[in-house]
What does this fold into?
Amino acid sequence: MRTKIAVGAGLAVAAWLLPYGLDSYAIHVVNVILIFAVLAVGLGLCMGVAGQVNLAQVAFFGVGAYATAILTTHNGLGFWVSGALALVATVLIGLVVGTPALRVQSHYLGIVTLGLALAFTNWVTNAQLSGGAEGISAIPVPTLPGVDLSSEYLYYYLELIVFVLALAFGLFVVRTGLGRRLRAMRDDSLAAGALGAEVPLLRMTAFLLASVYGGVAGVLYAGLIRYVAPESFGIANMFLLLGMVIIGGRQSLIGCVVGAVSLYLVREWLADHPTIAQLAYGAVVVLVVVFAPTGLAGLPERLRDLLRRRRGESGTAARLAPFRPYAERAGQTSGTGTPILTVSAVTMRFRGLKALDEVSLTVAPGEIRGVVGPNGSGKTTLFNVISGLYRPTGGRVEFLGRDLTGSSPYRLARAGMSRTFQNLRLFGDLTVEENILVALDRSRTLGAWRYLLGPIAVLRQDRELHRRARDVLDRYGLTEFAALAPKSLPYGIQRRVEIARAVAAAPSLLLLDEPAAGLNGEEVRQLSEIVRSIRDSGVTVIIIEHNMGLVMSLCERITVLAGGRIIAEGEPAEVARTPAVIEAYLGDSMDSDDLPSIPEVTK
Amino acid sequence: MQITLQTIIGGVSLGAVYALVALGFSLVYRTMGLVNFAHGNVVTVGAYLASTFYLSTKLPFALAMLVAIAVTGLIGLIIERVLRPLENRDFDLMLIGTIGFGIVLDALVIMIWGATGRAVPSPVPSAPIEVLGLRIRTYDLVVLAIAAVATVLLVLFLSRTKRGAAMQAVAMDHEAATAVGIHVGRSNAIAFMIGAGLAALAGGLVGPLLYVSPALGGTLGIKGFAAAILGGFGSIPGAIAGGLAIGILDSFTAGHFQGYSELVTFLVFTVIIMVRPTGIFGERTVNRA
Amino acid sequence: MTTVSQPATTTGQTLTVEGLTVHYGGVCAVRDIGFSVPAGEAIGVIGANGAGKTSTLKAVMGLIPRQVGALRFGDVDLTRVPARAMVRHGIGYVPEGRHVFAGLPVEKNLLLGAYARKWNAETRATLAETYELFPVLGEMRHRLAGALSGGQQQMLAIGRALMSRPKLLLLDEPSMGLSPKLVEDILAVLLRLRGEGMSLLLVEQNAKLTFEATSSCLVVENGEVAMTGTSDRLRHDPQVRRIYLGL
It folds into this structure.
């Protein structure tokens, strides 16, 4: 912490003194670099943090600059009024460009945003209002009482303040709830949705952020250069910007700034040989992608990793601490009352294949229900239908008395449903603690305005969330792993993190998809204890499992699926004796005298 | 009616070129699940190579084209080899990697051929033919014929040859393909090489239609990509239908909106993609998006 | 079938696996497993889901990263042979589930099974044999593989592997998702292949199928060998049922 403050203070002094050592051309370069840095931070937020491919950042930049230019020269408005209006215009355009993200992702989004960026350049090159290919010159000098902003030295300080604010705000977003949700969505939008993150709104937020930064950079650019022309906002600069973000490190905003500064300096240094510069940074982009995908910002971490491996240090020697059971909810009566979940005649077809065939089941509050069946019998499909990942071809799903058939996963999650996944869907680039935090944080994305108007409240809430996350980690014996990446942990611990995360979302119904897969005997025993305690705290549990020992001892009722149909349902001992079940598992019932006697199921 | 037909005809030849570009995109996507953002720049390289051999070494147009295809095929091989470590791992990173290659190729083009463009004369008599009152340029017919032949050859290659079948198998299930003895990396390399060859063919053909300049590939690449998506990414009939559709759309917007044609084209394209993200023929073979 | 009356198999090759270990991320899916498949024999690997059966098979094929003490097929050391070359050493692989080339016709799928051979008259003959073994595939030869039913796809996957004329066939859960009638059909095919002298390594969840198709079995649990023995003995062992039904 102290070193951080020292470095920060050092940087502040250096930034303050910088203009004194620079000639007028150099200060101009620095001013342009700062503008690119703001742009890169915006692109980093959208593409690196939120994972939304955005090749229209340069168009946002252009909208900001052009709107300022048009409003000042054409409508005769003052610079700052124009700037504010330009920012509004950019945000509107940003939301339009972001709309396709609701429907398409990855390369599709890439081409759509690129296309819209080209549409923008096409418009400014042709429209009379924007001065055609010549652009607009003679933008008035921005006025500030007592400061002559026509001096690039003084303009530098204005830009510096804006840049620091922009970077600080970006870091603030990344390190608090909103940023965590954005990063969670980038890592695994499915799991994020299942934890209640409103994925569509978050995608729009990403574009909103990108456009705000683009707009701010555009206004600054208009005030600095006081001339706008189409080529400043073309594809070449878009790729330059992309190079800055990739080389610097997509997922780190500081990395984006470093990338912007270094790439622009290289370009400036090779100003007389622009093609060589282009060749160089293109090659560097390729090399970075292949050899250092985390960019410059990720290098220290990689070096540390390499050193650790050289020294032959093994990974985590830390051990999982014991689970601390929940307080039992008094008056818990299992198996009574109105059902928490009713699945009625659900059918799910995939291209003619019937994965589920008229499946009906009812789960009472406080129950632990087991769903078993051979591979490919439709168990996970059933979970996907219940949790809203699939819309069933036929039938209804009622949760807490409401018909929620085909609702989006995040709505179901917010209604009180939580799940784990067969193949573990932890957010790989978030720490264990952050994984828990994403689930704990129930604030809505629409409440993100508080980032601007009430940052203190946001910070306070975040501190409270951290406290609760530490609680959860402590309860699940995960405190030692809080700061580690889930991927670095042994499988059994990852499984426990996923359960802790699902329960942290405070569900009334918890769906566990093969929680014991890959666990050893002792771990299975602990799991059984954990699940029972979760139930005792008032959560209804449905569990898909192949480990029959676990299912038999844990569940009150078992539903057996085979070939997409329910072939048996009842108490464990009863179900295990059903010939159809034995056949589904062993191939046929064989000689029934081979069957061992069934022990009483103890709870 | 007459004007409408004339507009369609005006768009078809450029549409055929878009279709070729789209075919290259689709082929690589179909076999590797990768979008090659350097494809447009390979088109530029192809256009310059073909025009250079045609204009300065006085090779016949067809031969110049073949040389161009061979050289760009080599470029495709290099791109695939460099990015191979990322295959089946991180497609977004690979996508950015191809953008990087695009930047490099763009710079190389400017270094070798300069920033200004060149006009390529039509290799066939330029007088248009009149059919039923419609004016059709002879070169348009040549473009259409070559595009059609290339498409048929590609379809035959994929459906009739062992290598073609193997390439499709890799796209469908690379593990099962490995188990029957197919070298997945080599199959991908060949896909990339053919994709680059198709780009060069498109670039060579478009030379006499448009002005050959460093910016050529950017436009063609984006329109070709849009065509591939419009038709249904990865689908061969889709690439052709999408290419022709974009070509005709272009021709209409050029007639009705003049300078703003690009703007309108992309807006229409965006709306279509949002309404139907799988395109006309859907994404049937691979679904990694 | 007796081994003495089969001169063809005396020149056959034994698959030997020693010390096979597979790690997935943090989890050890398979721990130090060893077994051998003598020429002309059928060996089964059974166990509950998630026990590490599929990983074992994929690791033998080299489709996933593995550590292995020794891996030999006859005199050939396979430890450094890439997955794509296994077929050229006479090892055929039938993957789990529906891993056919869904977008290609049935016949193309089968021909691709013979990718490592020349597509000539001899291959045509093998194709005819395959159609004879699976008449339904002959009827559907121009249909897209993805349009077949689950059972037909399984037949196709087996047929595709047979097209390379393997000496040893690795099968991963051929009964998965099939009805009892179809499982019977698969069993008949496996018995016939065994009768022809082919070695089989069968990974299965369906214990009955495995016991009838193989001569001896490994029971795996949590990535380790829990029991071994002849199929006849294991068939009546209550321990097996305990592992399966969790009783």
Observations:
- Chain B has eleven helices and two strands.
